[in-house]
């Protein structure tokens, strides 16, 4: 304890750094209980490659993913007496065909779980850069409420098709939204869609990650931000921890602020995935915010103070 179910490495993701074994070794050094590996599902259209992938083909991406699963299995076996490793993947949803590809890959590689994440709105990348984000805003004629609504509609489609065990950065659509401009989630038509998605995820037993990478992006809160996290908790939703690490240096990134965030919102119990009797299940860890992991890593949480969250 604790855990993360959202981890990448530069070995298999061009915008991350280092190798996958480095991520595992750092997690072990920090006394993590479970490490969920979740490299990105490969994209299958040339137009969806990112600039740093200009020397790759879509076939290359599929080979990289296959290599990832092979390496993850090796590491799982090598370090099985020191940490539990689950082998998963982070989803994409660019077109409807993407969802079918995810299903096929999950079956082909017998993945332990999926992190259900939406990185595109109508085939346009959402979290790549401020410029790309602004292009989506422009596509909606500057109507940010319509843009946010579309995000939550596509997120629901993803959840309905894939039923991911972990909901990744639930409100990623806020990533480049200026704080000076009214948050569309205060509008009824947008908030109702987010609430609908929360209800659906809870209905099939998903776990929402509380993702600390949001602080690296300059946001006030982790994903999901406090308005949505409070709603999830009030409705009995289950939450877990994720650092969304992009290399060994990011393992447990901002977990000090994450602990303070959880304490401020009154979160004491967490859920995590673990293999039990040959099947990956969601287990409850009561009083998780009091676990000795935090003190062992010098993380006190309360000293951060809500004013800095």
Automatic annotation (TrEMBL):
Known pathway: Amino-acid biosynthesis; L-histidine biosynthesis; L-histidine from 5-phospho-alpha-D-ribose 1-diphosphate: step 8/9
Superkingdom to which the source organism belongs: Eukaryota
Catalyzed reactions per annotation: L-histidinol phosphate + H2O = L-histidinol + phosphate
Enzyme class name: hydrolase
Source organism: Coemansia spiralis
Gene3D superfamilies noted in UniProt: Metal-dependent hydrolases
Entry EC number(s): 3.1.3.15
Swiss-Prot/TrEMBL keywords: Amino-acid biosynthesis, Histidine biosynthesis, Hydrolase
Protein's name according to its UniProt entry: Histidinol-phosphatase
Pfam family, one: PHP
């Amino acid at each position: 304890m604790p855990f993360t179910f959202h981890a990448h490495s530069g070995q298999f993701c061009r915008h991350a750094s280092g190798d996958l074994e480095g991520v595992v070794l750092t997690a072990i050094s920090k006394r993590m209980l479970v490490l969920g590996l979740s490299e990105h599902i490969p994209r299958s259209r040339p137009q969806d490659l990112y600039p740093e992938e200009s020397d790759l083909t879509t076939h290359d991406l599929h080979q990289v993913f296959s290599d990832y699963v092979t390496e993850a299995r090796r590491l799982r076996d090598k370090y099985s007496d020191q940490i539990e490793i689950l082998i998963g993947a982070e989803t994409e949803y660019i077109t409807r065909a993407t969802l079918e590809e995810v299903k096929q890959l999950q079956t082909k590689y017998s993945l332990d779980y999926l992190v259900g994440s939406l990185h595109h709105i109508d085939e346009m990348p959402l979290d790549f850069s401020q410029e790309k984000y602004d292009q989506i805003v422009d596509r909606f004629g500057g109507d940010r409420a319509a843009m946010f609504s579309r995000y939550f509609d596509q997120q629901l489609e993803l959840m309905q098709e894939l039923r991911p065990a972990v909901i990744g950065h639930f409100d990623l659509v806020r990533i480049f939204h200026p704080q000076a401009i009214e948050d569309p989630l205060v509008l009824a038509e947008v908030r109702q869609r987010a609430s609908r998605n929360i209800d659906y995820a809870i209905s099939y037993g998903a776990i929402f990650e509380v993702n600390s990478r949001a602080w690296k992006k300059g946001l006030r809160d982790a994903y999901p931000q406090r308005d949505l996290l409070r709603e999830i908790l009030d409705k009995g939703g289950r939450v877990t921890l994720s650092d969304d690490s992009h290399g060994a240096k990011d393992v447990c990134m901002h977990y000090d602020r994450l602990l303070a965030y959880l304490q401020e919102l009154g979160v004491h119990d967490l859920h995590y995935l673990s293999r039990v009797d040959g099947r990956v299940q969601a287990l409850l860890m009561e009083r998780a915010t009091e676990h000795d992991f935090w003190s062992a890593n010098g993380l006190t949480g309360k000293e951060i103070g809500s004013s800095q969250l």
